[in-house]
Amino acid sequence: MSAPITSTLSDDEQRVTGEALQGTVVDLIDLSLIAKQAHWNVIGKNFRSVHLALDELVTAAREFTDEAAERATAIGVPPDGRASTVAGQSGAKGIGEGWTSDEDIVNIVVENLAAVIERLRSRVKATEEPDPVTQDLLISITARLEQLHWMWQAQVA
Amino acid sequence: MSAPITSTLSDDEQRVTGEALQGTVVDLIDLSLIAKQAHWNVIGKNFRSVHLALDELVTAAREFTDEAAERATAIGVPPDGRASTVAGQSGAKGIGEGWTSDEDIVNIVVENLAAVIERLRSRVKATEEPDPVTQDLLISITARLEQLHWMWQAQVA
Amino acid sequence: MSAPITSTLSDDEQRVTGEALQGTVVDLIDLSLIAKQAHWNVIGKNFRSVHLALDELVTAAREFTDEAAERATAIGVPPDGRASTVAGQSGAKGIGEGWTSDEDIVNIVVENLAAVIERLRSRVKATEEPDPVTQDLLISITARLEQLHWMWQAQVA
Amino acid sequence: MSAPITSTLSDDEQRVTGEALQGTVVDLIDLSLIAKQAHWNVIGKNFRSVHLALDELVTAAREFTDEAAERATAIGVPPDGRASTVAGQSGAKGIGEGWTSDEDIVNIVVENLAAVIERLRSRVKATEEPDPVTQDLLISITARLEQLHWMWQAQVA
Amino acid sequence: MSAPITSTLSDDEQRVTGEALQGTVVDLIDLSLIAKQAHWNVIGKNFRSVHLALDELVTAAREFTDEAAERATAIGVPPDGRASTVAGQSGAKGIGEGWTSDEDIVNIVVENLAAVIERLRSRVKATEEPDPVTQDLLISITARLEQLHWMWQAQVA
Amino acid sequence: MSAPITSTLSDDEQRVTGEALQGTVVDLIDLSLIAKQAHWNVIGKNFRSVHLALDELVTAAREFTDEAAERATAIGVPPDGRASTVAGQSGAKGIGEGWTSDEDIVNIVVENLAAVIERLRSRVKATEEPDPVTQDLLISITARLEQLHWMWQAQVA
Amino acid sequence: MSAPITSTLSDDEQRVTGEALQGTVVDLIDLSLIAKQAHWNVIGKNFRSVHLALDELVTAAREFTDEAAERATAIGVPPDGRASTVAGQSGAKGIGEGWTSDEDIVNIVVENLAAVIERLRSRVKATEEPDPVTQDLLISITARLEQLHWMWQAQVA
Amino acid sequence: MSAPITSTLSDDEQRVTGEALQGTVVDLIDLSLIAKQAHWNVIGKNFRSVHLALDELVTAAREFTDEAAERATAIGVPPDGRASTVAGQSGAKGIGEGWTSDEDIVNIVVENLAAVIERLRSRVKATEEPDPVTQDLLISITARLEQLHWMWQAQVA
Amino acid sequence: MSAPITSTLSDDEQRVTGEALQGTVVDLIDLSLIAKQAHWNVIGKNFRSVHLALDELVTAAREFTDEAAERATAIGVPPDGRASTVAGQSGAKGIGEGWTSDEDIVNIVVENLAAVIERLRSRVKATEEPDPVTQDLLISITARLEQLHWMWQAQVA
Amino acid sequence: MSAPITSTLSDDEQRVTGEALQGTVVDLIDLSLIAKQAHWNVIGKNFRSVHLALDELVTAAREFTDEAAERATAIGVPPDGRASTVAGQSGAKGIGEGWTSDEDIVNIVVENLAAVIERLRSRVKATEEPDPVTQDLLISITARLEQLHWMWQAQVA
Amino acid sequence: MSAPITSTLSDDEQRVTGEALQGTVVDLIDLSLIAKQAHWNVIGKNFRSVHLALDELVTAAREFTDEAAERATAIGVPPDGRASTVAGQSGAKGIGEGWTSDEDIVNIVVENLAAVIERLRSRVKATEEPDPVTQDLLISITARLEQLHWMWQAQVA
Amino acid sequence: MSAPITSTLSDDEQRVTGEALQGTVVDLIDLSLIAKQAHWNVIGKNFRSVHLALDELVTAAREFTDEAAERATAIGVPPDGRASTVAGQSGAKGIGEGWTSDEDIVNIVVENLAAVIERLRSRVKATEEPDPVTQDLLISITARLEQLHWMWQAQVA
């Protein structure tokens, strides 16, 4: 079965845009898993505050994952968000195992957000010509992640 | 830093219960990723019905993941739900990549649910003695997954 | 068509558990019909209070009916909740026809609840071994009906 | 205790209207039990769609049952909605036991709705003179059941 | 300024329908004031139950007052719901002043409802020919008041 | 494919009722498009008030369109609400193009409502015998449109 | 039956406070009836705006009526809010019958509010000594009515 | 650590106001425990009505406890609401142990409310000069408790 | 009356942007009428699923119609959404009359969406220079319609 | 008056279960009072976070108190939750008076939770044989308190 | 145009009360701008907690601003809340520009609240005679700001 | 302390974007204060309509202020929204003091919106290259303000 979903994009536009979206899907799934991992393993004086803020990050990451994946389907590209794909292709920095202090968690989140944002910034540029509709979605994801990046970075400032 | 979170369980009770919960966390995260993958890649006459039902499965899997992981923390065991851990340890059957017919999706979901349920059933038995509180949680997860298993199997009956 | 829905239970476990659930479905449907009958036919000084309390009982009975019936399907046993089955197999005490005083209604409800609770208690014991998942459901039904039994009995105390 | 609830209707008007309402109560309770039975026992490709649509039918049948029964009380006639009364007097067509294919379920629902609607149509005529208030209720029940009848029949068209 | 609001009704139809609606407006305002008076002055064992039920009556009376008055405007007849008009033209039975026992309150409500319902019944007949749209409204008011009449009468049964 | 949806109405009853409903569907769609057109093009001191009131009219027209169209399907008549059908068969008065003063808008709405109400009144009479269920729906549409007619006419009074 | 409800107030305090509350109850009921009368009979360019604002006034008047009346009961004084009492004792200015222009309505509302506020101001003073609890309620009623007075007066400014 | 929270009140004003608030906190906690005790142990014909009304009392007592305690903190006085403090200092009348008839419960509630209200009345006077802000809070607590006192006393009238 | 609403756009920018928005308004109104037509006339096994999905399409089309039309007003161009304009200028493919199978409906929706999306894509390009604010709106409409296009196309894949 | 509420438990089962529930009621009331005391008296950098978290603990303790007390009534044992009983029988560790630093509060909460959990664990064992329905409730209380114990302990880790 | 809004206050009462309200409006607007400034510029470990608490302060300040300003209009005094007026007349302490540590922010908020509260306290006294209605509003503003003052001061205790 | 919040923008991009956002924050705060000033001081026949519409403008201005200020923080630029900054740097036209007629208010709002929109338009252009994420936010602010500009201008058309 080939190309059951069609699009008005040219093959090239579809390829470039599809890669940008697939990369975004993988990064965001990983970000949500890292944030959940942190949500469970954080300890320290600011436990409650960090624990709650992490779930806001999870919610954002999950909603954008769905939007990016469904944008891929809309241009005829089947997204891949399976565990092994995420483990192999994610551009996030990751997180260690076991109990982790709240201060370390804040730094880990800042680093992971920075890595994902940087990749999103280059995808915003890459999709401007081939598909402004996709670009618009990537801009709104970037906007929200940069807002979260500020909020987490403010804690180590 | 060792054992920052204490519990009334003996070391042995904690070990057995912790393994049951860690295994459940991994299986459920994988189940949620598989269901999302199916949610995006399903095609066919029953697309809409299957697409919607998969999100109910995702919701259930995510909520139980959180409950199982936080039960692990409550008995002093740090849960591990990172992408690579899930990719390496999950007991679910998995799903292939690319567009997939609704009929195939139904079969894939039934198989994955069956595999996860079977492991849960053995964990219900394993935790009865060491920690009835954890057993109670595993029973309620099993109950809901068996209900979903019926609903998906009913579609191939 | 035979056994379209499969289960991890052995034949024996399935038979015992299925009978417990089928009996519960029938008792609860009857209880909901009796409570509605009372809801419409009650008269007397405490009309309003009794009228309202009966609808809480109806709601509880209906929700548990659905849970018990869908638990039966989940273990591969098709439930039977048809009018004639209920009329023939219910273990509830029933209610007479026509206008009935609020005092009589309270006694009728207490008796019917007591009869249904007693049968549930024995099913809780019967399902402990074959299916702790079903037992857990029967325990929660019993808990709620015993709470309602207290509330109704308190009115004749 | 005789006639505790009075009405402005003459004895004859009360008798005709009371019979129409009692018949409606019985038919609608049976319809709700049949729909629940179908809700639990349906299997097949369209399981989810049919399963959900049946609960809308249950909701409609239950709400109208209550309105019809309380209209009976309002004109001084005590309604009878007990299991044995329903089993003995219902004008619905009924449903068999056990797992049933989605296609059969659709046909069973269409037939049962058609039978109940036909009886309602004759009651709309019968109550026009004796009690236009009751007629108005029966008209609104008929309107909704005919809408549902179309929706179910559309599936076999 | 004469007849600023026009209608498709003939002068005669307008006059008959307008009188039916004006009478209904007055009766319902009085009913709401009587019910509030009772709501404040009731004492006795069933205080709470009666106190709450009276506010349901107030709510019903107020909503129907608005519907009847706005139906009058819709057919070009300005409604009159001023205190002196209500005091002078109401067909309700009224209520005495000061603290009143719950048993007396129940009887007072039953009598007032009966008086208002009887007048509504004759207006339902009177408006059938001139304006079925208004008749339909009066039927729904009658239906609700007769339901409330049953509920209050049931308390003295 | 012929007559996939059946009805208890005779051919003649179905024809008369079907025409009444089809005419109502067309009139109401046109009314909703006219009201939206006015909603966007109104200017003048009362802009805000008129702008908001027009959306209430749109909401009413849309809901009744759906009820009328689905009543047609329920009696086995397929409704036709396509743009060209509406443009060709509507009984509404219409509206000019471009910016329009609030005073003119009020007059335009009053005229359009009056035209639609007059046609509804004759359909209420026409359907009384063949189908009282449909008549009941047309009565409730008339009631609401006459209420809106008063509210708009009150602004020019 | 005398004085079934007791209070910590002296006889004199109770009398003065009771009169202030009874007067307030009567004024507010009349205000709500006047506002409803205006709500139905207003015509003119500002119909919609005035029509809506009048219902806010009705809501305020009704809620304060209930609070004032229940404060009277709380100090052992049975309130009297019957139509004839309102017609005989109200200190509001009243309203004429029939269609009334929006400009006249605004003036009528301003006058009625001014009259009621003036009486409330003197009751605030009268109750300061005997019962500060009642005074506090009267102050909050005055605050809201003075706010509404400004809003209505602003329309004639 | 001394006086970490400052206030604009003089030492004397702070002492008087602080005592009034501390006494109120203790009385209200005891009132909430008494009402819960009654909520569980009441039996008799009016069980349901009394059972529900007691929870409204609990809710009121709990909310006012929090407001009084946080007002104490706002003026720099640390409140004390521990079980032994409540047991030792409460001015409420208390309640016996075990099942208690609904009639006795009503009397117990009336007596406890009366005792608490009397103490509140004297605190309203005591705080007028030192802190009108605190007085305003005590007035609103008194107003609500006197309303509840009427509602409970009305049941024994 | 000419140009009562002003804009910062040049005449040329206004003309190009206005045409893009007017074309979008017409296409979307037609899409909503086509989807409603399909909603009523669809028959077949997937009736329920298709019937529900069509109302999601109607909702989307109506909301975007309003946004596009109000964007036109914001740049000083009066939109035209009258039935005859829609019938004459729409770029959608349309739909036939009478009962239509669910499979045909799916194809009809896919074709109509494709036609509307193609026109939107060219308007996104056309408005980039003259008015990026309007372009942003057209991009979000395109994004949603392309998502719906995928969902409908997935059903024929 | 003896044993007005009956149960299916034997005298011995009732005694053991009743003691477990009565002890739980007392511990949980004390826990809620301690948490409120801490909520008001906490000071320090983490004031806001701790202040908010304490109210979640209060909510949990209050809800479980009610469930445990009503479970006691359901098995025929009248619960005792009066201030003096709580002061005398509680197994919680208690809290000192006056302003307390956030760090001390966290330790106090951890200790009190640990003490209450330990007693609950032994009651879970004690009730397994005599009443699995009560055991199920105690398990769910334990599960939630152990979750809270982790969250508070994490702050000192 | 002079004095379009009238009041029952004497000129002197109006002047004193008007000044108190105008001063309050200015202080509260400034407080809301200071809190927003802090909300954006705070950095440090407690960022999230402080960031959130500041928005609660903004909400309180904005709501009280509106109430104070509308109370001024109600007594015939036009309030002035323009930026330059606020910049020139505010009694708050203000805040510096740029990133600010969380500890500094807490101190800044405590100081600003203290300054505004002190001015409110004197206005409460000043308005007691001329207008108790306004005094009541100022008391409730003071109560809430003193509660917030405690909460912020508790963080530096 | 310098640059605690980092960004992926170059210094130049950060400076240009930061200035655009700071200017927007100031303009929007001023707009919200002007709209509130108008909300309180408007008088005239259209008082209510204008009064309500002004609060919609306040809500929009406040929400966009927050988004713009938090976008500034996200790119590492601390926003300045203090009263003196707003008074000194705002590009809005301002509003006079004292009671103002509704007609004047409409003109004042139109002028202020026009001034703010013009500045936003140039910022949309200025940020296109340095930061498309910020540009996207400025576009959505412009879109909403231009919609409001139309609505206010329509009132003077």
UniProtKB/TrEMBL annotation, chains A, B, C, D, E, F, G, H, I, J, K, L:
Source domain of life: Bacteria
InterPro entries per the UniProt record, alphabetical: DPS_DNA-bd (IPR002177), DPS_DNA-bd_CS (IPR023188), Ferritin-like (IPR012347), Ferritin-like_SF (IPR009078), Ferritin_DPS_dom (IPR008331)
Gene Ontology molecular function: DNA binding; ferric iron binding; oxidoreductase activity, acting on metal ions
Name assigned to this protein: Starvation-inducible DNA-binding protein
PROSITE patterns xref list: DPS_1
Start and end residues of each Ferritin/DPS domain: 19-156
Keywords from the named record: DNA-binding
Gene3D superfamilies recorded: 1.20.1260.10
Family membership noted in the UniProt record: Belongs to the Dps family.
